[in-house]
Each structure stands twice: as C-alpha cells, then as structure tokens.
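Look at one such:
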Amino acid sequence: MAEQPNHSDVVLSVRGLGKKYGPITVLTDVGFDVRRGEVLALLGENGAGKSTVSAIIAGLVRPTAGTMTWMGKPHAPLSPADALSAGVGLIHQEMRLLPDLSIAENVFVGRLPTRQGRIDRASINRRAEEQLRRLGLDVAPTTLVRDLKVAAQQQVEIAKALTLNARLLIFDEPTAALGGEETDLLFRRIEQLKAEGVSFIYISHRLDEIARIADRIAVLRDGQLVATHETAQIPVKVLVEEMVGRPLDRMFPTLDEAPGEVLLEVENISSPDGTFKDVSFSVRQGEVLGIAGIVGAGRTELVRAIAGADPISSGVVKIQGKPIGLHHPSDALDEGIVLVPEDRKGQGLILPQTIAENIAQTNYEQIAPSGWINPRNVNHFARSAISRFGIKGQAEQRVSQLSGGNQQKVVIAKCISRNPRVVILDEPTRGIDVGARAAIYDVVADLARRGMAVIVVSSDLDEVLGLAHRVMVLSRGINRGILERRDANRLAVMELATT
C-alpha cells in the first residue's frame, strides 16, 4: 500500500519496499514519504515490520524489492556509514554502547577528533557535555557507560545521534527508559531541530507520546502499510485497532477485589548508599501493588534489594510474618520471591539459547530432580510454559529471534514456573507493543488470582493505575504514601512523586 507524494518538501520517499528472508516475507509493498521538518510516527505491533523498514533506510538491511529517494536522489545505502554520510541516522531500540568506554568516547566513537596526532579528549568531553546538558543528564562525560543506569544510557544514545548533524533521525523507542522530565527535554530538542529543517521517523509504543510529538502517522501491520493519517490527533482506540487488526475493547483486566492475608511485609528497609530509606509496605495474597515514581526515585533499587540482588543496610523483610535473610538472589528464590528484571535482554535472558534452555535455567529442580538432564524433559517443560503464557515461538527456537513481547513472556515463564509466592515485575512492558501489553496484563492479573503477591514497577503511570489494587509512590527513595485504588489517579500520584 503506497502513499502517493503530495508535498513539495518530501525529503525521503519510499516506494514498494519489500523484504524476504528465504521463504519468510516480512515486508510487502510499503510506501510513504517523510517531509522536511516533520515527525512521522511509524506505528505497529512487534513484528509488524517497523524495525525492518528503519534498518533498510539506515543501511543495515538490503531490501528485496522497492526503491527509495533521499533529497531527490536514489537512496540505497550499503551500510550505516553510507546512510550517515548522506545525513540519515538511526537510534536503535536496543542500546549499542561500549560499557568500558566513557560517555564522551561512546558519543564520538568512530569519529574521534584528533589534535597533533592524538585524540582531542578535551574537545570530545566538552562537546559531549553540551549534548548531555541539552538532554538534562547531569553526569560527567568521563563517566564509564557501565556505571550508568538504563535511563542514562538511553540518553547517551540520543546524545550520540544529536552530534551527527543528520537531516533525518530515526528514533526507535527513544523514551522507553526515560521518565517524564527527560522525555519533555527530548521533545523540546526535537522541536528545535524540526525548526532547523531536520526530519524524524519516530517509533514508539507510547501512544500518548505520538499525539504530543508527531505531525503525521503511518501504521504497519504484518509487514504492510494499513493506514496513514495527516494528523497525529487520532483517537488511541482507532490506532490500536489499526495496529492489531481487531477491536480492543479493554486494555486492563478486571481485578479481584478481595485479596487475602498479608504475604510480604517490608519494614523500614534502607540501602547502604541511601537510594531508598526506611521504606515500609506490605502485599497481600492475590494483590497487585503498583510502585510509581519519577526516574531516580529508587524503585528498581528497592525491588532488587527485596529480591536479594542488592544489599539492605537496615530493616526487615518478612514472608508470612517470618523474617528472612536476603544476602543473595538465591535466598529470595528459596523463599519464593522472584524478580522479572527491567533489562530483559541483559539480565533476564541468554539470547543465543533456545526458549526451552532459557525457561529451564531456574527450574532444573523440577525438570531433573535426580540431577540428570533429559533434553526431552526440558522441551516438555518448556512447551507447557509456552502454552500457558501464550509465547509465539517453538521450544527449539532461539530467544534472539523473538519479538520483545514474546521475549518478556519467556522471562516471566522462567520465573513463574518456579511457583513463587511473591512476583516482582520491573517495567514489564517496556518497549512492547499494545497488543503484547494486553497479554502481559492478563498474565499479571492471573498471577494475582492464583494467590501470589504481585509487585509491578512501571514508568507508565496509566499502567500502574490500571493494574494495581494499591499504588505506593516513591520520591527520592522515600515512601510518600500508599493510595487505595479508588483514590489513585494521575494528580494524586504526581503530587506525591514530586514531593
């Protein structure tokens, strides 16, 4: 489905774009235009073809059909360097930074300026710092990337692109790890660049962002362009139905309103570095507790400590009234506490391994109680989890070949197959499309119905409000209050979060 050019300021024209990998077709006859100084939102579920289109435009992938023009000339980049030299830059959804290099070195890697035959570190540090300040990241440019949190690493990726002086920037989920303030700063920068004639292709699953930042919208489904809109002020319900190809009557499942006895108690726990201080709360059987707060509030650090991944300097964690010692993640696992981490690829999965191998990792006590691992038993166990959690993939398939939503389901399946008592999900739908989000939300509700105590940490406030029986709000590492479902709304949460 090709969009016909109707604007004299077209900078990128895509016509009849197609891509096959052997017998598998991932793109069919995709066509659209990008105009000078605009943001074109490219929407679709995971696997719809958005990343493939972006990769073709940016020179990472060669198409099997179709043509492109850039600034009126044929555009067929053979590599990312070709695209960059033409003025097209891509920020990947998955960060590709070098952890043992500094922020400045990452920003200018491959194009480090020199002076008298040596790297001009003063120059790269100064120029990197300028971009970091524009993005509101108050960190020294000499800081090693490995010492940054996920949100800060994402901002480094964005800073890297902004130094390229590209005329078309493709943003693939650039705000997935950013909070509201950081997102606002990025959007202001985009508006500045738009005024200078820079164009954007903007991919995001946060549909509220699209209405704020985009000028037009193109929707992909199953590798085909199914809709275009000349304005971004389109009802979310319309966009979601175009993306998934079916009516989506509801996003969040109905919660049971009668949680049981207190299962998890946290009493006055603090971290050694003061990231969180004297935090207390409880979670009942069958309850979903949401944890909200702006980036830097200490949410991830808090749940990692409860899961035994980070130390606790003071305070007590109890399971059914019994204090437990948490010195290692295995201690938490032994007590029935599991954590689905925010970085599924870096902390939750081994990408080259199969779905079966990943699911089996923490479940060998069930799969091979005698100590002898039978591949048949591993695959049988995995197929059961694949069916239960609706994973679109085969047991023998590598996890790296799955969409983000299905990868997240594998992490959840791996953890839940242990039959835990407490389940903690940190940013469970980050970078996942709306269709897959609804499936994850159903999983969360099902865990609560099975009597587990569920904790959900999310930067998406609508997600927290839609899923939780109660919402605890953190600000600067302090519990500012716990809101009952009937009292929890955006205003009430943000008032506490900004205290």
